[in-house]
Amino acid sequence: MSDLSKWSISHKIAFYFSFLFLGLNFFPFPLEFLGGLMTMLWSFVVDFFGKIVFGIPEVTVRPNGSGDTTWNWLQQLAIVSFSTIGSIVWYVLARNRPNHEKLAFWFKIWLRYFLAATMFSYGLVKIFPLQFGNITTYRLFERLGEMSPMGLLWTFMAYSKGYQFFGGLMEVIGGGLLIFRRTTTLGAVMSASIMLNVFMMNVFYDVPVKIFSFTLLLMCVYLLAADAKRLWLFFVANKPTQSAEEIKVFEGRKWYKYGRIVLKTIFLGIVGVMGFYENFTTAKDIDAPKSLIYGPYKVERFERNNTVSETDTLRLQEVFIDRRGAYDMLYVTNDDGLRKRANFTLDSVKHILRMTDYAAPITDTTQYTFTYSQPDAETLMLQGKIKSDSIRVAMKKMKHRNFILTSRGFHWINEVPYNK
Asked: Structural domain boundaries of the chain?
């Protein structure tokens, strides 16, 4: 593409909006040290938009494990507003400029590397597998109707480490292709296909990463936009097409040629090699030895403040102490709808179990400490406090069950469908 080409008005407006919208969404990459400052600035903007547009005095729930909070949606409203106004102002100020080829060139590189880093990140946690983990005893004993849509999706993915590996490998390959200029289009096509599927799963299984996955999909679409005509001619019209033309930046400069190689190497070292090592190291905990207290339990006696009450809606009826992937999890349930998950650490020497609420905000570091004892291999006793309440629990391990889901396995030959 010649740097003397004249852009149309629609081309300019589309570029301005894309630059501002995607830039505001993903800045400060790669300047991660500015992340805290950007969060503070966005908090001010989000509170302002919430108050002015919807009359919300303050948005109290800040970004957390969910990426689809009120805060996030207000942020998107602000970004769309800024991008729209900014595009109009930018067009007026640059109306006599024929194009922005050089800026578009560098912007495309920034998008490629951000998308590549993200694809590597999401791919590696599936390869090992850490994102979905394994099916826990809690899931095996849980009724299907008690699962959330997201829980059902996570269970589906957790069943097969092979499928997790395949999905993660495709994401890593797509990200790897984006790093190199000649394979960018192929990487963008592959990444767009993956992200479309991810976005649809997030929508239809109510996974709270809908905004982020959709913006990643838009990023793929932007990278493909310049090749839209060529792709149409080749794949749809069945006609020949020419190779892509690109603006030449620092053509013939040795420092630029070798600098690109150095930067690509550093990027692959940080995102690829270090990411691989971190996930590999974390994955070692998946097969770490488990204490004898792990297992599914039926509560035989539950006391709160030295009182036993069958009508206490907070009483525990089932307790599952398990490991999901590389992370220890404790689940408690009862027939009144209690479904609570907690992280825990175990001191097997002092017989102490320390729990933290899995769903608690990041700023909430409250720990609930219990002492435990095992009169025999099948019995577990817990004693401690939850807030101001003293809790005592006596429970028995549930009998081992040979679940079809975990025992059926894979078969090349199926004389009849085994669909139960």
From this structure: 1-99, 112-207+227-287, 295-397
